[in-house]
Write the structure tokens for this entry.
Amino acid sequence: MNKARQEIDWWTVLSRAMLFSIIWWALTDGADGSWLIGGPVVLCALVASVALRPKEGIVWRELLFFVPFFLWHSLIGGVDVARRAFHPRMPIAPELVEYPLQLPPGLPQVTLVNIMSLLPGTLGVELEGQMLKIHLLDGRGDYLSGLKRLERRVGRIWVESADDFSRG
Amino acid sequence: MEGMTWLGWSFDAFVGAGLLWLAWRALASPDLFKAVVLFVAFGLLLALAWVRLEAPDVALAEAAIGAGLTGALLIAALTRLGISMASGRHRNNNKEEL
Amino acid sequence: MTPGDYLSAALLIMGSLFFLAGTIGLLRFPDVYTRLHALTKADNVGLGLIVAALAIQASSWAGVVKLVLIWLLVLLAGSSVSHLVSRSALHRGVDVWKG
Amino acid sequence: MQHLYLLLAVFLLLNLGAGMWRVLRGPTAADRMLAAQLFGTTAVAVLLLLAELENSVALRDVALVFALLAAVTAIAFVRRAWAGTEDSNDTR
């Protein structure tokens, strides 16, 4: 268990404490009296999440840049699929393709698969090592460049070791 | 205000009719897996009915227990019983009875 | 009606249209995989627009955060479930429909 | 505004009814499961609209529970019922 031995930097603890506090605050609609329970709950969540934290860390700045990118492209994805569903001739040409991944296994790959399913035309089907099976709604278009860009972006969000947190 | 009550009534009418119909279909379905999915849908609609009856606490319980957990438990029970998925691979393509 | 009301009314109507698109896709598309495309993408965008519309109307910031939290949960559930279902469909040997 | 909320809630409910067709027809179990997933998302939207309509915060909590549990049934389905043959034999 060298994971637990890793140095726990204060930035990780602080950012997570803040995140959990915000979630509690939102869940209770900002009721003041709720902090009597909320304090211990946030503390428990903090302890659990720091103890169970994966070896990859989040670069918050990259995540912040990723949010508008994701929102815009998932909107395009929705419009795209809606257009195909409403279109009288239903212009789809589904295809199952394999895509070699550059991302390291674990969280980065899983994030990619999950996010991909919300973006235009792609659906992550199966992850086998460094090979990802993707179902395309329309195999005729250019999907590769979009995927590569998404992969690079996801790769920048996750950094290898937890110590790099603060430098994000 | 007139339109408001009319809309409210039509909402309630859809929920009520949907509940009866779903209950009947779930009981009458020969395909047990289909019955489970119908039951889950029934739970969702019932939660909406509780909301309309101004009982959000009951709706909360119904959403958690009725639609969430019971569906999962019923599926687990179905698998444990060893009843093959009637709509699995072997009957993939034939049009089944409604 | 204030300008904010008009904006959120427009967002609400657009969101509902995406829900309609999701249902139409679910009914029209030919196989499990394509239906998953329709469901996850259209419904999540639809819910996102409705959440945005209600966030404009929300009276407190806590309400806004809670709405966003609900949307994120649905996003997470939707994308994970679509991955799991398509994966097991592939394992079960459900063929990919080709036009 | 109030009219719009209720109108759209009715519209989404009708949408749900249309999705019912997929539950009845299948053809595979996964298709039925997908329809159930659609119901979950639509129900969250309807609940949020009703919460706004009745100005009740408690209803948003109901929507939150729906969102949390939306995946449970589907995951139980994938893990238990629809996994490959090697999983369907175990009696855990």
Observations:
- Residues 3-91 of chain C form one domain.
- Chain C has three helices and no strands.
